[in-house]
Amino acid sequence: MSDEQLLDVKNLRTSFLTSGGVVSAVRGISFSVGHGEFIGIVGESGCGKSVTMLSIMRLLAGNASVKADSLFFDGRDLLKLSSKEIRKIHGSDIGMIFQDPMTSLDPLYTIGDQIMEPLKIHKKMTRREARRKAAEMLDMVGISSPGQRLDQYPHEFSGGMRQRAMIAIAMCCDPKLLIADEPTTALDVTIQAQILELMMEMKKKFSTATALITHDLGVIASSCSRVVVMYGGLIMEIGLSEDIFYRPLHPYTNGLLNSITRAGGKERGKLIPIPGSPPDLMNPPVGCPFTARCEYAMRICAEARPSSTYVSENHSAACWLLHAKASGMRSGIARHGR
């Protein structure tokens, strides 16, 4: 593992044994997160984004099977750690913001108790020290009258305030990596912008690496330096934000870009949806999972899964169109892209 990488994932596979059969949710992905880096993981619902990070955190249900060639975090292989050692990492070295704070926060405990718990466990603080730190964290995330708010329960907070409290809990022990799973989904646009701005401020203040899981490309554009595009349990494309938005390589990435409103011009407000449906991961396709929905699909796309091709040091995609003999078809994506 490179010293530059905080998280280094090699060939992660996660499946679930269900009454209907085995669901292959993540089918062999590799990526990394550098120290202090802010990356985005984007894709449609069910593509494997959240499962990937929950696999790393080892927070999946008992019917899940997680395998990988290696899963290094800060020099340690998480697959080789005991449950007790993993619990020490949770909340201290890795913090997580979940999608719905109302179901993630315990309704029976005050906000203060829920912030103080990791401080007492991981930082060995006394209750008095933990309460003082908890008030500081609420103030830092923009909640007024923090001393009084500590004694309130989650139902007494608005949606935006609950999400801010979740950020305070996730950041209170100064984690090296913050995983944010759709942190703005249930919030209105104004509050979404405030939460994203807060996350960026916290990242700058603590130099915390952040992995933002979302289906919203607008969120990605305003915050992330690098983007991982997932589909069908696989990584379709990885690149710097400017590469993904202005030089997309994969037809799926291009489809995502065309399905959001444009900032201006004649096509403003026009959406171009991706036809078809995502693949059945109980019976995943042999080749590229996007084949059935891709206007550029060739016979080989259905017969074999393409490996990742690098067009630069930071930009790669798993697509047969990058093969030299497909260059004529590849130019079509450039015309469709932004």
Core attributes:
13 strands, single chain, alpha/beta, 338 residues, five-stranded antiparallel sheet, globular, Rossmann fold, eight-stranded mixed sheet
Topology, element by element:
Layout: E1 5-18, E2 21-34, E3 38-42, H1 49-57, E4 64-67, E5 70-73, E6 76-77, H2 83-89, E7 94-97, H3 101-104, H4 111-122, H5 127-140, H6 146-149, H7 159-171, E8 177-181, H8 189-206, E9 209-214, H9 217-223, E10 226-231, E11 234-240, H10 241-246, H11 251-258, H12 299-303, E12 308-312, E13 315-318, H13 327-336
Parallel strand pairs: 3-9, 3-10, 7-8, 8-9
Antiparallel strand pairs: 1-2, 1-4, 1-5, 5-6, 10-11, 11-13, 12-13
Helix pairs in contact: 4-5, 4-7, 5-7, 7-8
Write up what this structure looks like.
- The protein is of the alpha/beta class.
- It has one domain (5-102, 173-336): Rossmann fold, CATH 3.40.50.300.
- Helix content is 35%, strand content 24%.
- It contains 13 helices and 13 strands.
- The chain has helices spanning 49-57, 83-89, 101-104, 111-122, 127-140, 146-149, 159-171, 189-206, 217-223, 241-246, 251-258, 299-303, 327-336, and strands at 5-18, 21-34, 38-42, 64-67, 70-73, 76-77, 94-97, 177-181, 209-214, 226-231, 234-240, 308-312, 315-318.
- The strands form two sheets. Strands 7-8-9-3-10-11-13-12 form an eight-stranded mixed sheet, sandwiched between helices. Strands 1, 2, 4, 5 and 6 form a five-stranded antiparallel sheet that branches.
- α8 (189-206) links the parallel β8 (177-181) and β9.
- α4 packs across α5 (127-140), α4 runs parallel beside α7 (159-171) and α7 (159-171) runs parallel beside α8 (189-206).
- The mean pLDDT is 89.
